[in-house]
Design brief:
Distance between the termini: 24 Å
Low-confidence stretches: 34-41, 241-245
Radius of gyration: 22 Å
Shape: globular
Number of domains: 3
Structural class: alpha/beta
Number of helices: 15
Helix content: 25-40%
């Protein structure tokens, strides 16, 4: 096994890049630093001279998918189980953090040629048995268990029927679920007593992020330099411990909670280029002449507090279900009719609206998680 490939571990053994207490202290320190810093480092650049990298070019220097390193790691973790025609446990449970907008487990299953089980179109409708995988498909995969229920008095039928079927069949099945939905299902239908101990990927520390994000774009003499806008230091530099405050990847690992799709979103939103000099031609095609990408400091999000319970309730529901339409939110969250909370959380960058479905923004997830914890909401476990 390559040293770069780290197997998934049992849920509950996640090595957080920074403890909750340390994260809070670091956030306060970072806020104070921004407030009282009067200028950039000698080799940095004034942020007013920067503009965001164009999306079309951004995909060339920080290409999707946001979960690319996980595919080999899950394959390695399940190698023996997949090769066993009669494993002791017919079901494997994979729990992942929320905000995975690219559906990692479904993409991985598709690459493997496995049978992908789609969620019910209507969680209040008739339950349909899963069916068996063909000999060539080998394994059934349910990518997102959170799509099988709605937090509603009548919204749990499908997931309960599914658990009953899984407990009675010997068919090899991989079930994915986000960590917030897993915690809810533990309380609502004791899912942990029906399914085996889940597994979860290992946290992406600064070393793993540095290797992955660096590999996405050519660097060095013939490539592109990625420099901190604040200090001018190489954003990929592995600095001495005494200089760790200048280590961007260290801060990115902590700010993203070690979650690859969160780190990837934060990274992309931090990339900028210097604006052309005054009166210079502003042509997007000049990107091929850019030799420096400036990396801005991590963005702070305005957190809803306890006084804004409507926003917190909606954000919690969005994490639980991975995304909801306005009609579904109305069924799961008791919002007063006059509220404009949906427009508010989109405007502040906490949520995104895509094709009529609201999702928590991946880059805002750490802030949302902190807000929910501070407000006393039951937390997920990694």
């Amino acid at each position: 096994m390559s040293n770069d490939v780290k197997p998934f571990k049992p849920l509950g053994e996640y090595d957080w890049p920074s403890s909750p207490v340390n994260r809070g202290i670091e956030q306060i320190f970072a806020t104070l630093k921004k407030r009282f810093s009067s200028s950039n480092g000698d080799d940095g650049i004034d942020v007013s001279r920067l503009s965001a990298v164009d999306t079309s070019w951004l995909d060339k220097i920080a290409a999707p998918p946001a979960n690319a390193p996980l595919s080999a790691e899950l394959s390695y973790t399940l190698k023996e189980w997949l090769a066993d025609d009669a494993p002791v446990e017919a079901v494997k449970m994979v729990v992942l953090p929320p905000c995975d907008r690219e559906n990692f487990l479904e993409s991985w299953a598709s690459e493997q040629g496995f049978k992908i089980i789609t969620p019910p179109e209507d969680v209040f409708g008739q339950y349909t048995a899963l069916g068996k995988a063909t000999k060539s498909q080998r394994v059934r995969v349910i990518p997102r268990l959170e799509d099988w229920f709605l937090r509603h008095i009548d919204g749990m039928y499908h997931v309960r029927a599914l658990l009953d079927e899984l407990s009675q069949t010997g068919e090899k099945t991989i079930v994915g679920c986000n960590s917030w939905a897993w915690q809810y299902l533990r309380k609502s239908c004791e899912i942990d007593s029906a399914l085996p101990q889940p597994i979860m990927f290992q946290a992406f520390d600064e070393g793993r992020l540095r290797a992955w994000l660096s590999a996405l774009s050519p660097r060095g003499e013939e490539g592109i330099n990625f420099k901190s806008a604040e200090s001018g230091i190489d954003a990929f530099a592995d600095l001495d411990e005494g200089m760790s405050s200048g280590d961007y990847m260290n801060r990115l690992a902590k700010s993203s909670l070690g979650i690859p799709w969160v780190a990837w979103r934060i990274w992309r939103s931090s990339l900028h280029v210097a604006k052309p000099e005054e009166n210079a031609e502003q042509d997007a095609q000049t990107y091929d002449k850019v030799d420096t990408i400036w990396v801005s400091e991590l963005k702070d999000f305005a957190l809803p507090d306890r006084k804004n319970q409507n926003a917190l309730m909606v954000l919690h529901a969005l994490l639980l279900h991975n995304g909801l339409s306005a009609a579904q939110i109305a069924k799961t969250v008791p919002l007063p009719g006059y509220t404009h909370v949906l427009a508010s959380i989109v405007k502040t960058g906490l949520a995104e609206l895509t094709d009529g479905v609201y999702h928590c923004a991946p880059q805002a997830y750490p802030a949302i998680r902190t807000g929910l914890r501070n407000a006393g909401y039951p937390m997920d476990e990694l």
